Amino acid sequence: MSRKRTIDAFFGAAGAGTPKPKKPRDISDGLHETSRDRAHLDGLDTNINHEVLDKAPAKSAAEELGASQITPGKSNDFSSYPAYPFPIPHLPPALAAELPSWPASLGRVINDQPDLDLLYFEPYVARGGGGGGSARSLFEFLRAELPFYRVEYDINRGGTSTHIRTPRWTTVFGLDDTSRFSSANSSGDGGGGDTSKILDAKTGRDVSADKFYTRYKPRPIPKCLDGLRLSAQEATGCEFNFCLVNYYASGADSISFHSDDERFLGPLPAIASFSLGARRDFLLKHKPVPPPPGGEHTDTMKNAMSKPLKLPLASGDMILMRGPTQASWLHSIPKRTGKNATDGGRINITFRRALVKPGTDNYYNYNVGTGPVYKWDTVNREMRVWKKDL
Ligand SMILES: O=C(O)CCC(=O)C(=O)O
């Protein structure tokens, strides 16, 4: 049973019936009052440590990307694949040239709450310089070039059917660990021929007709996102085979409290989550748990369950959620109202690793679906239904 995204239904996709959340506390509320400001700024608090990542992978992201990825710019520099509605351009040269220098800052560990383990890069994609830096350019590029969907689905709870319209734009690329695309790499650059086949990762058998791959046709991560995937793998030591993208057009778009704890991700999934564009609050709260036998919850645990932590994610930030975080915590991007309702757009990119086939079907079902393809209209500055030129 697919659970992912039904969270929008359970918690009120349109906002109706959503319980009014308690006022979130800033993440720095978890620190000693005395050291709060300094700890927040320079990580001196014992609970929030700068982590020096000293892994030395055999190949750097830049090497793995190869020369073609870092010197694009010709008009034929696109990722093409039969299951893409249209070819997806490679990164513009300036961005591709900068990619090897990311992350732009060291990750900071946040693990001062029960069962929470985050690594926070502020920022990962540089946002300095005029106009928001590379983070803004990457945002503009991805919004303009990716196919998006506004997925709708019905859920049935206790005999009552509810129609859900996902309160944000979504898209997804990738394939679970059991299989691979038949093209030489996963960047959709196979150049035709039999590139639309899906092969068993171990035996090489053609599994394109498997029931989990036929409702929606899986498609490789295009090069413009694969560079970021490789960079995130190198920076975190984690492996990712899926890329989910959310576009929040304004403060009215949101994602309700949920955890990415599906069985197809395994027991302690690591998820790298990038923010580009408008700043939005990311709320975290501990899942409800029963008190210890014969005892009471500690104050820290009571707080973690009742008062959400707030990370005001800015353009270029990346937050790695790992260890027990998904099993124990819920996260959300709440709607913003009042003067924030017309916030600029925000893109969120998450890289994840689906271990088994049901994950592939689930991700395409809730992030692509069966509705029309939308593409950003640069003139009218809104998503418009995309139609193939006849
Ligand atoms: O937009 C975000 O930062 C969060 C996205 C998210 O929670 C999800 O896609 O599961």
UniProtKB/TrEMBL annotation:
<dbReference type="InterPro" id="IPR032852">
    <property type="entry name" value="ALKBH2"/>
</dbReference>
<dbReference type="InterPro" id="IPR027450">
    <property type="entry name" value="AlkB-like"/>
</dbReference>
<dbReference type="InterPro" id="IPR037151">
    <property type="entry name" value="AlkB-like_sf"/>
</dbReference>
<protein>
    <recommendedName>
        <fullName>Fe2OG dioxygenase domain-containing protein</fullName>
    </recommendedName>
</protein>
<feature type="region of interest" description="Disordered">
    <location>
        <begin position="1"/>
        <end position="40"/>
    </location>
</feature>
<dbReference type="InterPro" id="IPR005123">
    <property type="entry name" value="Oxoglu/Fe-dep_dioxygenase_dom"/>
</dbReference>
<dbReference type="Pfam" id="PF13532">
    <property type="entry name" value="2OG-FeII_Oxy_2"/>
</dbReference>
<feature type="domain" description="Fe2OG dioxygenase">
    <location>
        <begin position="239"/>
        <end position="355"/>
    </location>
</feature>
<feature type="compositionally biased region" description="Basic and acidic residues">
    <location>
        <begin position="24"/>
        <end position="40"/>
    </location>
</feature>
